[in-house]
Amino acid sequence: MAGVGGGRREKKDDRGIGTAIDFVLSNAKVVLGVGGAVMLGIATLAVKRMYDRALTAPASPTKEERPGQRSWEEPKWLGSSPRLLNSEVKTASRSLQCLPTSSSASEPGCTRRAMGRGEAAQEEMRRAQVRLSLQEQLWAFYRQRAAIPAEEQASARRAALDVCAELRVFLHAKLPDMPLREMYLSGSLYDDLQVVTADHAQLMVPLILEKNLWSPVPGEDTIMNVPGFWLVRRENLEYFPRGSSYWDRCVVGGYLSPKWVLQLFERLVTGSMNWPAIGSVLDYVIRPAVPSESLTLEVQYETDRRLYLDFLPLLILEDGVPLIAKPHRQAERYESLWRQSVRAEEAARLRALDQEDGGCRCACLKVAKAVCKLDPALTRLSASQLTNALLLLSETEGDWTPQALADRFLQLLRALVGHLEAGRLPCALYPKVDLFCELTPRRWTRWATPSTAPCLTQRAS
């Protein structure tokens, strides 16, 4: 795959991140298409610029940082056209490759032997200064941008709980015969892994299915062969005909359809509930969010604070595997598939690993998530993909002390590039699941349409 963007370059020393940039430009287009290649070029360029800025002060007289501009602000290239962006990425790559990686690169043989020891010491000192500078910038970014104040998190949780209580009362009163377990709130807001703003939570709505009427079928055991997804098949129709179960109204082709289940709740939540009246009682502004892949409520609980609450029907299998009605991205082809949810397991694994060694895994993940959230061009990288790339890195890297944050963050970027080169990102907890399986090539015209380009430019300014 590396041959697509040019010949595979010879392997360089790990004293820079030029190799990571080369891999991105060479291989990302094959896996994610033109838009995905540009996306990852942006991500790598952002880290390179932060790295380069630290490196050039005061060693390099050729670059000057403009006063008053923070190292995390990159206003020029966020709204660039594809041609300008590709040019800038290539220029950045060339500038990285021109950085001295060895004290012997430009010295004659005799002088190099005479001054080798002193040059090596200076090089090591300069590299230590670069690592320290990047380390300081990452922790500053974590504290100032990624981490959310406890008061803001508490306010968002209270708002989510108020809306959940209203929904619970309404559903029990409107449809007392609907077989539901107790609803509860979930998501990164409750795992302390949300970043930038406390603006998203999940309302889990567990359904009750009769054991003798329904049976789960793993996606890899079907003709579709999609690990990480399940079918829920209707059974025993000869003894229990249609109508014996409340959920028979949502059966399509012999299988319980998550799409129809969502539509059932959407008619109730958006069509029957008087949200303006409920919002006036709670002193909130509540409305269905449009457009949305799933049923989402937008809750404005303070003048400048909004919370997006995803309404997720949930099935709990006998062995405890949770399935959620979150559609496959190729919904037309896989509309009957239920998605296996591993978010809670991933979060628990991260916390357990950090507690064992006092590590910085959660902090590293938050920095990566914040970078992606703050830049609209990087939103395709999901939290699940970043989390699993970090968990896989934890299996091979043992030093996760807070002092190693900079090294681990750069390793995480290189690991993502490596997964792109391989064309596969396995789930750390369920290796058969490929987290890239839903990605499809897209043209740049769909990636940056005229309607989104002004938004990118405005964000960059």
From TrEMBL:
Q: Which UniProt keywords apply?
A: Membrane, Mitochondrion, Mitochondrion outer membrane, Nucleotide-binding, Phosphoprotein, Transmembrane, Transmembrane helix
For this protein, the record's InterPro entries field holds: Mab-21_HhH/H2TH-like, MAB21L/cGLR, MID49/MID51, MID51-like_C
Region (Disordered), start-end ranges? 58-79
Q: Return the Pfam families for the record.
A: Mab-21_C, MID51-like_C
Cross-referenced Gene3D superfamilies: 1.10.1410.40, 3.30.460.90
Compartments in which it is found:
Mitochondrion outer membrane
For bias type Basic and acidic residues, the affected ranges are 62-76
One MF term from GO for this chain? nucleotide binding
* Membrane topology term: Single-pass membrane protein
The UniProt entry's GO CC annotations, sorted and at most eight, read: mitochondrial outer membrane
Recorded coiled-coil stretches: none
* Record domain Mitochondrial dynamics protein MID51-like C-terminal: where: 152-346
Q: Which domain of life is it from?
A: Eukaryota
List this protein's GO terms for biological process: mitochondrion organization; positive regulation of mitochondrial fission
User: What range(s) does the Mab-21-like HhH/H2TH-like domain occupy?
Assistant: 360-444
Q: Where are the transmembrane segments?
A: 30-47
* Protein name as annotated: Mitochondrial elongation factor 1
Naturally occurring in which organism (per UniProt): Aldrovandia affinis
